[in-house]
């Protein structure tokens, strides 16, 4: 499904832009409380974003075992992100229309959803929390660049971080 392949490629790229931006952030940034729906630290927000992605990847694959928790430090989060992104790349490449209509069980919601809705949830959820951290980075003078899908497309859909964040 080309649409989901593009959505997840962009999602992986945009999240790496933010994670790499965090490397350029001033000392203490990751431990500082964030703004948005929770007051968790920026690190906890990133860990939550990635934990939800990995959780959905697992249940979409039909795995019953709970996935490992994200790392506590930034470099470990980057590796965790990269592994999860590769998993979604494989998952969505194998989908067809019939697969999108199938149901899967989400234990933390205690109900079934269509695969399509699970995939869309990952994209929407990650976009929300990524924007919260990117906004906080901008406030401390670190640019993550343009994270919009159309900007990514106009740049040739890069898979690597472009215009490395500057502090």
Label this structure with key terms.
Four Helix Bundle (Hemerythrin (Met), subunit A), 58% helix, mainly alpha, 167 residues, 6 helices, two-stranded antiparallel ribbon, single chain
CATH topology: Four Helix Bundle (Hemerythrin (Met), subunit A)
The helix tally amounts to 6
Through-space gap between termini: 38 Å
Q: What are the low-pLDDT stretches, counting only 5+ consecutive residues below 50?
A: none
* Rounded Rg: 16 Å
Instruction: State mean pLDDT (0 to 100 scale).
Output: 92
Class by SSE composition: mainly alpha
SS strand fraction: under 5%
Q: Outline the biggest β-sheet.
A: 2 strands, antiparallel
Query: What is the number of E strands?
Result: 2
CATH architectural name: Up-down Bundle
Helix content: 55-70%
Shape: globular
Write out the strand line-up for the largest beta sheet, numbering strands in chain order.
1-2
Order of helices and strands: HHHHEEHH
CATH class: Mainly Alpha
As for the number of domains, it is 1
